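Lab manual, section 2.4: Encoding a predicted structure.

Procedure: take the sequence of the chain (274 residues), apply the prediction step described in section 2.3, and record the output as structure tokens. A sample record is shown.
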Amino acid sequence: MDELNTKKIKEILDSYSVYPKKSLGQNFITEKDILEKIAQAALPLEKDIVIEIGAGIGTLTSALSKYAKHVYAVEKDRQLIPPLKDALKDKPNITILNEDILELKVPAKNYKVVGNLPYYITSAIFRKFLEEENPPALMVFTVQKEVAQRIVAKPPRMNLLASSVQFYATPEILRNIPKNYFWPVPQVNSSVLRITPFSSPENSSVEFRKKFFKILSSGFSHPRKQLVNNLSRELQKEKKEIKHILEESGISPQQRAETVSIKSWTKVVKNLRI
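Recorded output:
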């Protein structure tokens, strides 16, 4: 896998009569320089265990293996397992797993997660790993550019996805990737997103998290409407009570959910009984 290009990828897939599946969002990165930068963005050291989501035919897996102690290459599509094993047969620090990443049991010790994520599974991946009892030390994902921009948003442009991720971690966009760096070429450009979970998250109890996300979802139930109306209706509380709680938390009742920071949401959760 030293020479990474569209022609090489096609040759490997053709030899096994396997082709990318649109239903699984399979678009392979073909630029060696980009693959190296994604691997380096995970800050891999010799002691690191890396879980790769959607190994494909091993282009990113190969780059990761040069830095990490061990790479667990997870690939759901069983038809890709033979070409994947062929491509990585000379790399002893790689274990190939034909599994659904959402059902994978994570390591009990330090690990990092890297992957080129299809749109349809992005939110589920964030939820799985950020809510783990033992979350990863770091996550580096290639996602649609628009999705990355939504995740790193700040008030007054917050959204439910950004608030959900930023409750657990700090997200940052490292670089953008033009769509022609993938094969097959997708319809949109992508971005490399690094997510660093908080090492000692505040208010991390299961009870607090459930309450936080119930209130958060209620606040974003109708994003263009005022918070006092959304929370009152969704939580079945009197507007007078909700107004008092919002003001006590430093929020104007007329504000919309997109203008509220994680810190302010946390105050609401602490002050509101539901």
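Check your result against the sample. Strands lie at 28-29, 49-53, 70-74, 94-97, 112-116, 138-144, 169-177, 182-183, 190-197.
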